[in-house]
Amino acid sequence: MVDYGGKMPELQERLVSVIEILRKDFPGFEHLRVMIIEDMLYIIHVREFAEFISSSLKSELGHIFCDIGQDPPKIVLQTENSSILIQLKSLQNSLAELFALGEENSFSSPHTEPKLVSTDAPSTSVPIGSQSPQLIDLNSFLQETQVTIPTLNGWLLGYPVIYLFDKNQIADATYNLSTKFLHVYKVLVSRIRQSPNHNEAQQEELLSFTVPYDLSTRGSNEPWAKEFLAHMEAKLARFRGAWKSLHMEVSEFNPQAIVF
Predict the structure, then answer these.
(1) Superkingdom, according to UniProt (predicted)?
(2) Residue-number span of the structural domain to which 236 is assigned
């Protein structure tokens, strides 16, 4: 995921060019694409991305939704009749349909990839790969919904706690988070480095996310945190040749806003 910070279309064109070179010279990169949604660029592996969407919607690992559009923030249950949550679920289903697989495009072969299909949803009625075969243009994907990029990214990045607020609450959500104590959750992995003498493990940050302190007082002992860590450890087991270990660190983050 890349926040292009006003460098479009230059950054988009460069990333597409890089992927075109990689796809030409290295067979292992044939499934890479650049995807655009509003202010964000994503480099995705289309097969893995489609599998993630499908498994995420079927997963028993439930997401925690935190409404930060109100003060104080509160947990929103998936069973609640929340308008923004309903819209998010609709977007998730639209993405699942967009990256749907028919029987002829099964994932059983390493050389197949999902067939992008059009849907009846207005928010996805945009050209797919119109400028380049390596470009998936969903630039207007969120135009007809109140779902924000941070909420969508929380789901796409696999965070266990997803911030929920609509486009009319951006200022309130920013203020509410900046005036609260937060827990910062970091998932760290150790990469196995091969050297002539011995294996060296280098620790790297895989991902990090925040949760309001008052909603996560038990830190890493929160039930959802334990479940998420177990889920990540199970995923790590698929790549034991590259990654040595994984653990979670939790720290406190003080309020940053000046309150008058």
Answers:
(1) Eukaryota
(2) 180-193+202-259
- Residue 209 belongs to some domain of the structure: yes
pTM: 0.81
Task: Specify if 74 maps to a domain.
Answer: no
Q: Say which residues have a Cβ less than 8 Å from residue 13's Cβ, sequence separation at least 6.
A: none
Other beta carbons within 10 angstroms of residue 183's beta carbon come to 23
CA-nearest of 215, 46, 69, 195 to 134 is 46
- pLDDT, averaged in runs of 10, over the chain (260 residues): 66 87 84 87 90 82 88 89 91 88 38 43 40 81 89 93 96 94 95 64 87 96 95 85 87 76
Q: What pLDDT score was predicted for residue 103?
A: 36
Number of domains in the chain: 1
Question: What's the one-letter identity of residue 22?
Answer: L
* 254 in a structural domain: yes
The SS3 assignment for 154 reads helix
Residue 73, in any domain of the structure? no
Contact 67, 55 (CB under 8 A): no
For residues 26-39, one letter each, b for 16 or more C-beta atoms within 10 angstroms of the residue's C-beta and e for the rest, the string is eeeebbbbbbbbee
Please state, in angstroms and rounded to a whole number, the distance separating the CA atoms of residues 157 and 2. 12
Residue 207's pLDDT is what? 93
Query: How are strands ordered across the β-sheet holding 2-3?
Result: 2-3, 40-45, 32-37, 135-137
